[in-house]
Amino acid sequence: MIxxxxxxxxxxxxxxxxxxxxxxxxxxxxxxxLQERRDAYRHVSxxxxxxxxxxxxxxxxxxxxxQRQGRWSFSSxxxxxxxxxxxxQAFFRRAGAGQTPGYPRFKGVGHFDTVTFPKNGxxxxxxxxxxxxxxxxxLQGVGHVRVHQHRPVKxxxxxxxxxxxxxHWYVLLACDEVPAEPLPATGSIVGIDMGVTHFLTTxxxxxxANPRFLEASAEALAEAQxxxxxxxxxxxxxxxxxxxxxxxxxxxxAKIRRQRLDHHHKQxxxxxxxxxxxxxxxxxxxxxxxxPAPKPDLARPGSFLPSQATAKAGLxxxxxxxxxxxxLAILANKAESAGRRLVAVDARNTSRTxxxxxxVSRENRVTQAKFECTACGFGAxxxxxxxxNVLNRAGLVLCDVA
Length: 402
Hints:
- The protein has two domains: 3-176, no CATH class; 189-210 and 261-294 and 306-401, Nucleotidyltransferase, domain 5 (2-Layer Sandwich).
- Helices cover 43% and strands 19% of the residues.
- The chain contains eleven helices and 14 strands.
- The chain has helices at 13-44, 51-56, 58-64, 74-96, 213-216, 218-229, 240-274, 285-288, 309-322, 324-338, 382-401; strands spanning 3-10, 114-117, 124-127, 135-139, 143-148, 156-165, 168-176, 189-194, 198-202, 207-209, 277-282, 341-346, 370-372, 379-381.
- It is globular and about 80 Å long.
């Protein structure tokens, strides 16, 4: 198994400055490599420059600027160049598929917040011994930084990343060969229906409330954003007050993100502990949150039909606030670690199909919360009906596999 760990760093004042300089220099390398690719594409050839060619120049760059670029790990700089190469590969892939390409952009120092070391022991080393109560990570050019390790690390440490979030620093470990920790069998199978009114509903009829963390912090976030917008958007030098206002907005977003992540972990853990098999809908969240395309009004040239874009924007915000994608990813990881089975089923008509007689009709869904079959008269909560249909489809999948 593969597992990631995230721990808080406790650097000294000097180490914090060195970490900031490390991010700054890697950001400069990223932007310089991006500028070289742009110039080559515009003036030299249409083929551009590859990662291999730019990586071969690192030796000369480090010799030319030993105080900055030569100070850091060679492999971490290669990882930064590989990060840029992946951005270009994604750009060309989206352009070829007819999607919005999104050309790679230059990174500001405040937006470049992660440096990756591809191999433990090459420019970095994870020092964690059973008899030493203090855990440290050694980073080239920074030194041994204390780590607040709140749980043991299992498996073999493969890659190490250092990340800045606001004023705090974190270390991220990617480990493989992590042993599974199977839970005792319960003999239970359940289907879950994701929603906005309720975060999820199980086939047993249990509803989990949607906490709506973004909505709960909307007033404080709007106030902080209004204060930030009072400053000029384009200034030559960002003032101290402007940086403080930006940090206030980022702090609220970080709190919402932590609350949502904590809620997802707790709900996923509860499902994994109680059920052997968990069925869920295979959701296309990207398609569900798209803005409706404008439709021209044929009766009035130059005009468009009402698209209810405002109402759709509110629904999209609620879906993204619920974080279904993140929750299902966490649920999959916990299920794999606990030896549970996760089954994804087709989401079409799960809320329009009668679980009693199988009749499918749009009229079965009377309201957002009420389901009443027009064929047999079966009535229940609409979310509960969706979870029952997910359970039935998951059972069919298991039968086909068996």
